[in-house]
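Notebook p. 47: complex prediction with zinc ion.
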Amino acid sequence: MHRSLVAIAALVLAGCAASAPPPPPAPPPGPKAELGSWGVDLSGMDKSVKPGDDFYSYVNGAWEKTAVIPPDRSGIGSFQALAILSETRMKAIVAELTAKPVDKLSPNEKKLRDLYDGYMDETAIEAHGLEPAKADLARIAGLKTLKDVAQLMGSPKLSAGSLYGLAIGVDDKNPNAYSVNVTAAGLGMPDRDFYLLDNPDIVKVREAYKVFLTTMLDLSGAKNAPARAEKVLALEIAIAKLRWELKDQREADKMYAPMTFKALKKLAPQFAWDSFFSESNIPLKDGERQIIVGESTAIPPLAKLFAKTPVAVWRDYLTVQYLHSYAPYLPKKYDEANFAFYGTVLSGRTQQNDRGTRAVRLLDEHLGEAFGQVYVAKYFPPESKAKVEQLVANLLKAYEQDIQSLTWMGDETKKKALEKIRQFKPYIGYPDKWRDYSNYTVVRDDVVGNIKRSAQFDWNRDVGRLDSPVDKAEWGMTPPTVNAYYAPPFNSITFPAAILQAPFFDPNADDAVNYGAIGAVIGHEISHGFDDQGSKYTGEGVLQSWWTDEDRKNFDARTKMLANQYDAYEPLPGLHVRGQATLGENIADLAGLSIALKAYRISLGGKPAPVLDGYTGEQRFFLGIGQVWRTKMREGALRSRILSDVHSPAEFRVRGATRNLDDWYSAFDVKPGDKYYLPPEERVKLW
Ligand SMILES: [Zn+2]
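Predicted complex, structure tokens below:
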């Protein structure tokens, strides 16, 4: 007996069969899954890789060898494939609109059509030349004083770049009220590190940025562009030195410095704040209006820099920023100069998306809920919504059970965590109430004007409701978006229709795969409510501590370990993942995966999972997450990601999360000596 047990223990599957009842036979074939026969593209796997050495490549290695990134994309993989599908569907909607007689179009349809047609009419855009931007460029060229500069920077419709960001958001300490937010801004490249690092590849990016600045100034008609570009770059480098690092910009409490408008003026008197706010229409209440200031320690030195920079340099800076914003709607030479840097250098793309793709993206950006309404009617079946609602409910239940069983958290904090879980608000597919676009005017032949009016339309709404109750059901993403989010002040999780498809969610796939894919994505978003930042908000969405000091210390010690793990990953030579900047996402990945696995087990209702094609339920669960993150990225895009994105590169999201889960070790027989093996005491356990 003993002999056979020892022998069987060496063979994991047989061992299970000997000590447990035999697994049920595979269910009879139903409607076929989109990928493989039960949800995973087995042909994409590379079984020559040991799962413990590189789980990502084990799942995706064969796919990676043959996948080709289209020249107009910065990467390809599961997310990108769905994004392309969304674009194809949006194009189909536009084709139907175009086929309809104009007098049969609804007001929203007419706007979609005019915005689309105007953008597609490249002949007219070329013929107009710089004319549509002429008045704005003349205004920039005519700036005489620093007050003029500040006023233009605050103009809600211009998008000409600004040293400070001005936005209307939701007050983190009072989520029932809107807030006016001012934060440090001013950079043309995505993060301060692009200006400051010595890494030879980054130096090259900086050189390319200088070329971009020169080209744009040239195109604006400026004389002596190279010397002037040099000055703009020097200005931005000076701004970059004063800006906070990405990891500090993530700290919700540090980014919350409330003060009256009067106090802001006192904090940074060298900036013309009255001028800056003059076109905003924000009632300042005799200077008593509360402003939430972000990067507060950067605000005063930036104001000093503002005052000592000649107006002429600001004019050049604003000219470039303006042309950057509007280049996509101007003649080709502007569009291409802009793409050469932002598309090619920063994202590695060698070709623009075709015009039709760019046009539907434009509709999604400016009329997203009018367009999205048609999109979901056509492409989001009500059954999908019902099934995902059930999945979300299961994940929340699993979270609740998990919190109750935590050993590192005391009862007092647990009680609050459970309250928070019960207050989560899930939004699935599309918003219940669609946005009203009647105050947005679209003029077919005025593309630049359409973009400016869109910015003004958004701004007017925000200012108009500034002192009114918060619309908590409003969505921050459109239905054709392949993404999801957690909103701390609303304690809500939102899953647009376009992510609720294979390989994330496939109603015909095996449950284990769905739990490992969309289940982990749902778990990820819920976990943001409990990541290093989300955990600072209560279930009502108030930025206010609800943890005992001891529990917080415990939690911080665990997350510190996780940050250290990610700091060690090096996706590009000399460039490591930033463990602290990506911490919230890495926590969400790890916790989400762990909760999704619990939810999968609950769904089995005590019955053993079937074995399919030789894979156990748990193995299929992990294959699900591996496949979701299947991604191949261009080097430029990867570099931008590492420096300016709070998400770790896709492959490290898989490798980094799985190695902290005991169940992954048992599912794939991962042993000491395997590259991603971690001894049990080094595995981070959170939720
Ligand atoms: Zn996230």
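Notes: Residues 329 and 448 are 6 Å apart (CA to CA). The first strand starts at residue 75 and ends at 77.
Next step: compare against the earlier run before touching the bench.
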